[in-house]
Amino acid sequence: MAFESLPGVKVSSYAAEQTFVIGDFFAVYQKGEENPTIYRWTEVKSITENKIEFIINVAGVVYKIPKTGLPDEKKLLNLRGVLEGAVSFNPKIEYSHQKRILPPKYLYLSGDAGDTPYNVNGYYKEREINLSNVILLNTRLGNIFKLIAAVAITAVFIILHFIWGDTAQNWFWFLPISAFSGGIAVMLVYLVCAVIANYHYAHLYKTDPALSEEITFTISTAGFSAVESHLFSGHEFIPWEEANYFIETNNVFIIYKHNKAVFWLPKRLFSKEVQTEISGFIHERLVQK
Questions:
Q1: What residues pair up with 217 in beta bridges, in sequence order?
Q2: Domain hosting residue 279, numbered range
């Protein structure tokens, strides 16, 4: 089981008059009852994390663990790690969560991480995530940008023709005006993408406390990991076989699984020479796009 070394977490729900102990087992203490109800993780049907709570469906009963019972963010992240570790060991559990930057811990395996040539601690920064999101969005929308530019150039050229006419005599200044208009249209779309990226990160920052924590990043022969430093053991990693490809921007290395980013490694944490080494190291194991 991945992250099995994490300590169990005790959380109380005063509204439901229940206390939960989440660790090797899932135990529920009901007010007024002397003995708890104890479940094995193999009995759990689904786990959901939303903005306000964790929801565990087990044996036909739904339990809601409020995040208000976890005022310490490190304790909340510890609980998330325990739950996702249980999912890693029991992949039949249906699991859903909000968007985040750190890879979900159910992707990890527990074992020998192999040689670890690249290991560093650091924090994510809003600017590098935003810029990378803009670059990725622009890459995906590259053909759309070309189409927008072509439509804008054509539309402005036609408008100039109908307003001033005599295109045969005036095409030499109709054309640069149209081209400039196409560039303006693309720039406006780019700015919209930047606003969307900023909003996306702001939303992530509100919903994922891990973004304010120190992260331990590891690139090894067996796999890779990005784990909150206070939860890092060095024994959990995501195998390279679980990833499909990677993208390198000016700010980060991003590894993808099924077209979803699962690993972001800030390049500023390494010297230029080491960045080149890491790029080659990953390239030996994954296709670069």
A1: 120, 226
A2: 118-123+213-288
- Read off the CATH number of the domain in which 57 is found: 2.30.29.30
Sheet holding 18-22, edge to edge: 9-13, 18-22, 26-30, 37-39
Q: Do residues 254 and 263 lie in contact, with contact meaning Cβ atoms separated by under 8 Å? A: yes
Amino acid, single-letter form, for residue 24: D
**Residue 83: pLDDT over 70:** yes
Residues 13 and 93 occupy one common structural domain: yes
User: Are the C-beta atoms of residues 268 and 251 closer than 8 Å to each other?
Assistant: yes
Residue with tokens 């054309």: 175
Tell me: the pLDDT tens digits for 54-82? Answer: 999 998 899 999 999 998 899 999 999 99
Convert the pLDDT of each residue in 179-202 to its tens digit: 877 788 777 877 777 677 666 656
Tokens 């944490």 belong to residue: 269
